[in-house]
Amino acid sequence: MKNLSEEAVREFIEYYKQQLVSAEFKNNSISSGTLNITIKNDADIVKASKGAEYAYNDQGDSLQSFGIIVSTEDGKQTESFKHIGENEEFGDL
User: Fold this and answer.
1) pLDDT at res. 10
2) What is the pTM for the complete model shown?
3) What would the pLDDT profile of 16-31 be if each residue is shown by its tens digit?
4) Of 70, 64, 66, which is closest to residue 82 (Cα–Cα)?
5) What digits encode the pLDDT tens for the residues 29-81?
6) pLDDT score of 7 more than 80
7) How far does Cα 4 stand from its chain's mean position?
8) CB neighbours of 17 closer than 8 A, spacing ≥ 6?
9) pLDDT of the residue at 37
10) Torsion angle of C-alpha atoms 39, 41, 47, 48, degrees rounded to 10
């Protein structure tokens, strides 16, 4: 978490949750490898994306890695990152 305090991380996550419109896996399946997140048009895309990244990486319960695309409702702004699943993080067991 790049030297951020727990409080700062929580603030990013809370901001993301406030801006969230929807979050769906492509084809409604984690096996698609892509989670599409839509946030409000007036959101700070970088701040919301960081919040989403911290939120999904903190969950740590996914065995599979997948890409996450964060876009505004109008699609004019987009950020992306990869959630590292436990199998990739620790090697396939």
Assistant:
1) 95
2) 0.80
3) 999 999 999 877 666 6
4) 66
5) 666 678 999 999 999 999 999 999 998 876 656 667 788 999 999 999 999 98
6) yes
7) 17
8) 51, 55
9) 96
10) 0
Which single residue is written with the structure tokens 């839509």? 38
To which residue do tokens 């969950």 refer? 59
83's tokens: 């959630």
User: What does R_g of the chain's alpha carbons equal in angstroms?
Assistant: 13
Rounded Cα distance between 38 and 62, Å, is: 21
Per-residue b/e over 3-13, b at no fewer than 16 CB within 10 Å?
A: eeeeeebebbb
Beta bridge partners of 16: none
35-39: long-range contacts at Cβ-Cβ below 8 A with a sequence spacing of 24 or more?
A: 35/66, 35/67, 35/68, 35/69, 35/83, 36/69, 36/71, 37/68, 37/69, 37/70, 37/71, 38/70, 38/71, 38/72, 38/73, 39/70, 39/71, 39/72, 39/73
